[in-house]
Fold this protein.
Amino acid sequence: MKKKLLLILGIMLLFAVNLSAIELNYDDKNVVETALYDEDYIFFGETLDFQGEARDLYLFGNTINFSGKSKMALFAFGQHIKMVGSSENGIKSIGQNVKVEGNIKGTSFIVAEEVMIDPKGQIDGDTFIGARIIDIKGKIKGDLFAGAAEISIQNEILGDVNVYAGELTIPENGKIVGNLIYHSDKEITAKEASRVSGEITFEKEDDDFFGHNFSEEDFCIPLWVSMLLKLAFIIFGLLVLLFPATAFLEKHYTHKELLANSLWGLIPIFIYPTAILISIVLLITFPVAISLIFGFIPLVMVTKVIGITIIGSFLVNSLNLNISNRFLFFLAGAVLYSLLSLIPYFGFILMMFVTSVGCGLILLSLFKKSIV
């Protein structure tokens, strides 16, 4: 039975990410890509101008200009992201500034400081946006779910709109062909309300949304419990590092290696929940879903230990300390991790980063794929 489950899981993961059908590109300089690929395309680097075509695209960099075509989905993570091309299965993007000028089909998720949908841009599908400023000048055919300090709707939205906003404005060119549900500090004007064809539901937010819904008590963990959990994790980590297979961690990692590991680690982090959902939907593979769910915590714990050890190695290397012991690397990283995790609301992001570093190293070690 176990062999069958492993076989099914292997087939699923092979379909989820066929590493032999992925074009990998790593470059810390400016890259202009014009080629046409039948497989997925992954980029890690400084600046990318993608003018070609691929299946799924995973783009990680400081500046990303996308004017090509994605046959399926587009994942873009960077500081400045501009999307002029087309995607057939939505966009998933995290950045400082995200601008959409192309034609996007499918469900999209965007998180940034500022998000603009240009007048030339159009999204056909449900759209989820979280930002400080959202400026919608292009058309959206689908429901919009958004949260921001400022939201401006200056074009037509063919669908329901559900938003949390410090300030929501619907100028003269704006129109909502659907229902509007909004939580805001103040109500829209009568003229703005006339540009909504459906029902309007308004809930006033007197306090900050997050402060209104959460209190310190919700996140209050007794100090002794927190210290006990940290001690238990340190003991667990030291036990994991006793295995001879972890001896490869006794090296000094540079900031480039740390960044590369974290970016590579995002791939299995994306794939894992997808594999669980697929296993649940395909009833015949439901036992695999149960195995993946129960294996999630141990997997996160192990990758977290590896990630903290790598970060500790980087810290020791940065301080020019003559240490090459994985146990000391782990302890140094664990101290830094414990201090940073005390910052409110930062713990989850920190855990994701540390876990991605560990996942990335495992992925690179398993497949040893060459990076251009």
In short: The helical segments are 2-16, 190-193, 209-213, 223-240, 255-281, 286-318, 326-340, 347-367. The chain has eight helices and 21 strands. The longest strand covers residues 22-33. The radius of gyration is 23 Å.
